[in-house]
């Protein structure tokens, strides 16, 4: 189904039409800026705010399902054809259901509806690809594995709003892959920074701990829908945790309060291990004293009862929401790992920043931003802006050769980055 | 339909249950931080990136429809009952259609599908409220008025995924309004800054100009789906404009190229008027030389052909995407203007920053961040973090009294902010 | 999209593969039975029951929209390619909405949803056919023209569940048309009879009168959703009429009762004109004495409020439901007029019966039944069973030559029957 | 959600408002006609046609799922409240999917979509009833049990288009049940006849045999989508069988033909056992000689690949389609067994006819027709028309007392008929 947007992008990806010409407007190689990072680290400010939406939060569920589907498609294409075919499934909506939670049980009245949205190659060389079947199967698998109290068959309905990629686009995508010169499919930017500071590390770790297999086994009452909001004022950190409890594992109100206290305790342990001295943890702060006024669920996620979600509305690629840090609005989840700069540049910007800090002695912090221009080769961004904070007494300009090499190596690695993404287990939500 | 998420929030909004108690953990009044802004202005950096998705971009269409619906609901509730009832319609998905553009015409093959999602009061005091009818009517109206080449009846299908708000929630919402103490419905944060710098102003102005009534009348070939990506390197600004042209107003390929050149010229005029010396404008950069390889549409938006959109995935409340600026991930669109801190705090943070700059001589720039905690009164955030850049030779501490008053006045104004939002015409996308 | 069912049928329609071979099992020409009709005419029985669901009844709306779409597709294919392409849209569902009727007005709370279902050629010789756009446009047109109080844009949502016909099928369908030998796509049967008796004529006429332009202009309060159930006991006929009244044209309860009386009077006039002596008419029999307990609507159809409909669940091809007559379960509406025997045989059976009565003096009544076998030429049914009632003193066998000729001429006319159906204005619901 | 149609019916079912008054128009007790059946038995005619759509045919699947859901709802209401609450789920649509069958396997590309449609009580005495969850669960169960090669989770998507019954209606339904006087919810008619003749018995038996557990175990290649069309000409019976074969149990084309021959053989055995002398059986008549041109499926039903279905479009309550017999257009499936005359009267008419034949010596055949009038008590039809064929030398009038008693006893049994329907295992499709 050829369409305007596809076509627009298709021709821009056609390696046979566009010979890349240097010009005064668009430099032959992208422009690389390396500068000193003058922005203060948020850890140095009086106030800092960091948020993480846990794996069962409706927004995170959407991100995970979109990414999971994109990866499943990539693997299927690889298996059947030896290379990845065009797809982009980076939109999605979860429409919350209706439920009636209760101590010792409860029931789901209406399932949640999940709309997976985008385009994918549905036929190639005469072979049909079961995109819809895959979307439904892969999503049910993910839900079954990640939300322990949810029945992925009964409590969820999955809609596959995926149009076929245009024939043209499919072909060009394949050819561009073949020539080794993949052209950017969009004008967009990716950002990343390193390292995580203490509050960021803590917020991330608390959710990961509460949703770890060990904790889930010991405390099946802890649902996966956990939101952690961390606010630091000077040295004091306050974590406000919203955590869905699973009714079938909660006997009554006293049991609920007991279990809630345990959640706070688990969070405090994470803080203790991280050496946080002044830590306050609030769990489901505003709970009342009746079954109606507490955060009880059937499935461990508020998506069962009217809380909706979307792809790209929650955590950024590093798993956090950080208003005091540079962020991109591009969703990483669901984009194809071959040509979609909205995915590739966010991943690579994060990796460049991390490598700068890890590999260059004297670099304490790094921010990286990459901008593409539609139709340029993916490995030649319009601009790369890398800013680093040097340790006291160091001069950023001394790091320039090392940093340049790091940038170049990551850019040239973009062509094969899909291998990492498809076969690795890094999570970007 | 009472549900877990509703209930969780409902009790937190119950003014009769929660008497607000000062404690050492949660100070009686929110904590206000006023500090010097040590972050450099992006205008002072070597590289700066700013993006705006125009009014016809699928993401912006979603924001606009969600906000438009929220406002229509608010007005309907006001008309019928004298006050606003509970609603939250801040999620939404646009599933792009299929089209066959052509010079001099073209046709839409399959309409786009728009899913408006959330909860709203559907019955109150025995009166049923035509939420679905309103959603469809209001959306068609908006589309008809804002996308000149789109047939809002034939080219669009609207789905209303809006569950009824729980009875409890409806009642509590009403009562909390009655007592005058509205409690925060979530733990979230809002951010804002002022003023816009030169690149921000330019990017915003270029899209606004291209989508102005005057330009549309003179150049009906310019579709509303315009994305402007501005990249500044030192003093040079490059704008990459993606602009959908409307096939029925384009005769042939030469005409297309002629009209594209005019678009670039219009953008350059905006730059010229703003005194930008070194400005490069690229429109639909990678266009080829056949009808298939240019950015031609039937309706003026790529949503006609497979480009999908979502609420909250595009512009922030100030109409821009600014990776070099603090940003919130909270969508403003579609949230109720009475209790939803995700909306109120973003609006208020922007206004506090603007007021700091406008009203306090010597304040050149301001960043403001507000964090709520679920269950606290809306006008008492957990933390207010206001950082300002003082003009040379000024001391931020001298501004403290003025700034404190600005903050307090905006916080106390939150209770009636809905009037501005409902009756005003400020746009937050 | 090639599929099992398509393929199965496709090969059966391939005129190049199947050479039609006479065999003892399947005679070269279909077997024609002509016999005396020994079944008594229902008019001769003590009890007779006849029903008609009027044009605005949810089932009839579904029939009309399916047929309207099939015809619109046929015409579009003819215009663009010179012949009709494969399609079958004979399924459909109307999901009733929600409404709040009131004297002097009322409002629709949720629109009705209409699902048009089937398969159609969506691309041919590289040209895409706007099937979905057509389906929506044609349906809105029909609704706008036929249901005077319904807003076809606001009160209805149309879903096009139409998969593409397989490429193979499209091609074979075209070729079979080209060779002039169209093969039956299914094993099914069609039935017809003539003439209508007095009760049948009356039931049909009452609905047609109440829904005539003259009555609608004079009495806009009469909605199109009119169901007439006629029960004859000996000479007495009782009509039970259910008729939706349109709230905006009804002032109050007395006005409602006055207008209801007028509807009964109009029905009695039809009876009087037809010479029915003993006629009782009940309209909305069980109405109560409050606005809540009468049959008041906003749009003139119960589909606005939870009454659902389906294609093929109401009137047979002659516009009636007649348990005392032979009936086929095949829906005529929406089937393609070239090869679909479920449509063609019902139409032709009715025409053969009518011709037998009209053209053969001495034939007073005729029943006709045709059975196809999948893969046989459409004009050669497996069996034709024609039974006629001869006037007193006549012998059916004397009519044999005439009747045989009537059958043969109608069978050979099947090849061009589509012209009648596409360009004529005969209604089969 | 009170609605016009609900209300209209609700008041008619209100036993406290309507005192049933005898009148000249509507006799106090329904009018019972007992007459001699002058219509010839189809077995006595030269030609007869009988059809059965097997359990896996898309239309039958729809009937089965609607009835299955209605019964599940009835049982749930009984369990939770002790009586059946209002519901009507007698509409439904199956939108066929897309599949790629293959010898030894194949795959479903897109699931089929099933839309279950109607109204049901969703809340009663403050208890919410998980209608949607039940609909999905019950449907998956039925599909899993009845279609052996279908994966009820992956290959099917179920949509619950069920609006809440109006509160009023719920209450009246309950009250009418309490008073023991249930009023008819519609003006409609039910018909039945007995006994089945030889062709009817054969057509039914062939499908039942091919879909019996024994045959399925021995021949898993036989899908449940089996359509049997029986045409009798004089003494010769021809059965045209369309039977979906399951690809995973078919090795190759010769194997397919071998297995097809076995199906014909099985059908002939049924005929032999029934003493049919001249029987021809055709299976998938028009199969070609390539994998593409045979009736191969993944799941055993053509619903996997574009064949759509609807409730009430296939078999009548006795499991057959019989154009030479009286038939009702009312769907039995999915209607509530307490007040819905469209269900009750079809069941009862069949039972009265069967009882007349079984219990009255000398009655060889019986046709029964019942007509309700909306608002009359269910056990007092407007008319009962019973016609019987007496054995030679018998006089129908002699049977009048027995037949009257049979009718009366079945009518008075209507009040408790639901017990049979809910707990029995009679099938009406």
Unreliable segments of 5+ consecutive residues of chain A: 10-27
Mean pLDDT of chain A: 91
Biggest protein-protein interface? A-B, 97 and 98 residues
Shape of chain A: flat
Q: Tell me the quaternary state.
A: homotetramer
What features would you describe in this structure?
Chain A is of the alpha/beta class and 429 residues long. Helices cover 34% and strands 26% of the residues of chain A. Chain A has 10 helices and 17 strands. The first copy, chain A, has helices at residues 4-12, 58-81, 131-146, 167-179, 198-210, 213-218, 253-273, 341-359, 396-412, 417-423; strands at 31-36, 47-53, 87-95, 98-102, 105-110, 112-120, 123-124, 127-128, 156-164, 189-194, 222-233, 236-246, 279-283, 296-297, 309-310, 363-371, 383-390. In chain A, the strands form 5 sheets. In chain A, strands 2, 11, 12, 13 and 14 form a 5-stranded mixed β-sheet that branches. A 4-stranded mixed β-sheet of chain A has the order 1-17-16-10, with helices on one face. In chain A, strands 9-6-3-15 form a 4-stranded mixed β-sheet, with helices on one face. In chain A, strand 4 (98-102) and strand 5 (105-110) form a beta hairpin. In chain A, helix 1 runs parallel beside helix 4 and helix 2 packs across helix 3 (131-146). The longest helix of chain A has 24 residues, at 58-81. Mean pLDDT of chain A is 91; it is low at 10-27.
């Amino acid at each position: 189904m050829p369409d305007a947007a596809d076509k627009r992008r298709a021709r821009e990806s056609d390696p046979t039409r566009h010979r890349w010409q240097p010009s005064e407007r668009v430099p032959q190689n992208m422009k690389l800026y390396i500068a000193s990072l003058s922005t203060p680290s948020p850890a140095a400010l009086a106030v800092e705010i960091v948020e993480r939406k846990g794996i069962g939060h409706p927004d995170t569920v959407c991100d995970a399902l979109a990414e999971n589907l994109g990866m499943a498609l990539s693997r299927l294409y690889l298996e059947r054809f030896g290379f990845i075919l065009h797809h982009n499934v980076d939109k999605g909506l979860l429409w919350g259901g209706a439920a009636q939670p209760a101590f010792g049980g409860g029931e789901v009245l209406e399932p949640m509806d999940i709309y997976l949205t985008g385009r994918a190659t549905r036929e190639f060389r005469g072979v049909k690809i079961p995109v819809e079947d895959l979307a439904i199967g892969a999503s049910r698998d993910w839900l079954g594995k990640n939300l322990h109290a949810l029945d992925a068959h009964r409590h969820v309905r999955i809609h596959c709003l995926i149009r076929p990629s245009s024939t043209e686009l499919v072909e060009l995508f394949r050819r561009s892959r073949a020539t080794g010169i993949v052209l950017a499919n969009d004008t967009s930017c990716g950002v990343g920074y390193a390292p995580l500071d203490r509050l960021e590390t803590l917020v991330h770790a608390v959710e990961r701990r509460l949703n770890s297999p060990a904790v889930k086994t010991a405390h099946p009452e802890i649902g996966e829908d956990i939101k952690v909001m961390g606010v630091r004022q000077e040295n004091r950190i306050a974590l406000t945790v919203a955590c869905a409890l699973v009714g079938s594992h909660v006997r009554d109100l006293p049991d609920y309060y007991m279990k809630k206290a345990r959640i706070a305790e688990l969070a405090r342990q994470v803080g203790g291990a991280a050496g946080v001295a002044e830590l306050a943890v609030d769990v489901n702060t505003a709970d009342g004293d009746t079954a109606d006024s507490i955060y009880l669920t059937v499935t461990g996620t508020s998506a069962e009862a009217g809380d909706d979600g979307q792809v790209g509305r929650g955590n950024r690629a590093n798993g956090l929401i950080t208003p005091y840090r540079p962020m991109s609005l591009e969703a990483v989840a669901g984009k194809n790992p071959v040509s979609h700069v909205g995915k590739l540049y966010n991943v690579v910007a994060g990796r460049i920043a991390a490598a700068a800090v890890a590999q260059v002695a004297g670099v304490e912090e790094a921010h990286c931003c990459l901008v593409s221009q539609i139709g340029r080769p993916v490995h030649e961004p319009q601009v790369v802006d890398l800013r680093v904070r040097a340790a006291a007494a160091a001069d950023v300009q001394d790091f320039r050769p090392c940093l340049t090499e790091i940038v170049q190596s990551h850019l040239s690695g973009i062509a094969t980055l899909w291998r990492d993404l498809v076969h690795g287990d890094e999570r970007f939500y």
